[in-house]
Amino acid sequence: MGTTVDAQNTDANQKVTVIFVLGGPGSGKGTQCANIVQHFGYTHLSAGDLLRAEVKAGSENGTMIQKMIKEGKIVPSEVTVQLLQRAMEESGNDKFLIDGFPRNDENRAAFESITGMDPEFILFFECPEEEMERRLLGRNQGREDDNIETIRKRFRVYLESTLPVINYYASKGKVRKIDAAKPIEAVFEDVKSVFSSMKDQVAA
After folding, report:
1. Bigger pLDDT: 146 vs 19
2. Does the annotation list 139 as a binding residue?
3. Which domains does the chain have, with CATH numbers?
4. What's the pLDDT score for residue 5?
5. What is the pTM (predicted TM-score) of this model?
6. Distance between CA 68 and CA 186 in Å, rounded?
């Protein structure tokens, strides 16, 4: 079993479980997180959704975030970590899926230093770039960053920045790899196996 730690908003006896959910844009992370929430009682926190909500709120942070998202850049780690931490504290839960974060080593280090938490494991949705591109261009969510030029820029950022994070956790034996090119139902069967295995370890 991985490390779980006390969170600031819980009493001394309550432990918090954090699972990072990583995969390229269009790998199906959000869909699978919704299934995990329904079946296993986790709170799903999407770093991207939190950042977009901040943009919509029109804060000073939001204006800066909007510009960086348009340019395909990564938002400063402290901003994202603080949004995640606030959402965790407000949720009232002690089990979290953090989707699309950390996106680089700086994100990872900032999360560990600011929150004092280590992830239980990393759920990594592996999917070919051609399939992710097909999915992104085919969906209709009104996302400002779902055009071909920005999508390919996001792929480049992902490959350069996020894969080293996955390699870091793989060296610690904390990566659970999922073949995300399969149909949604088949992917979730694999996901359920990972979470059932974790429950068995806790029970033991």
Report:
1. 19
2. yes
3. 17-192 (3.40.50.300)
4. 40
5. 0.80
6. 35
Closest CA to 26 of 100, 103, 105: 100
* Residue 74, marked binder: yes
Ligand-binding annotation for 103, yes or no, is yes
- Ligand-binding annotation for 30, yes or no, is yes
Is 52 labelled as part of a ligand binding site? yes
Ligand-binding annotation for 27, yes or no, is yes
182 marked as part of a ligand binding site: yes
Residue type, position 184, single letter: I
Helix-then-strand count for the chain, H and E: 9, 5
Residue 107 known to bind ligand = yes
Question: Is 116 annotated in some ligand binding site?
Answer: no
| DSSP H stretches of helix in 42-117 | 47-57, 60-70, 77-91, 105-115
Whether the per-residue pLDDT at 7 is higher than 50: the answer is: no
pLDDT in tens, 102-128: 989 999 999 999 999 999 999 999 988
155 is in an annotated binding site: no
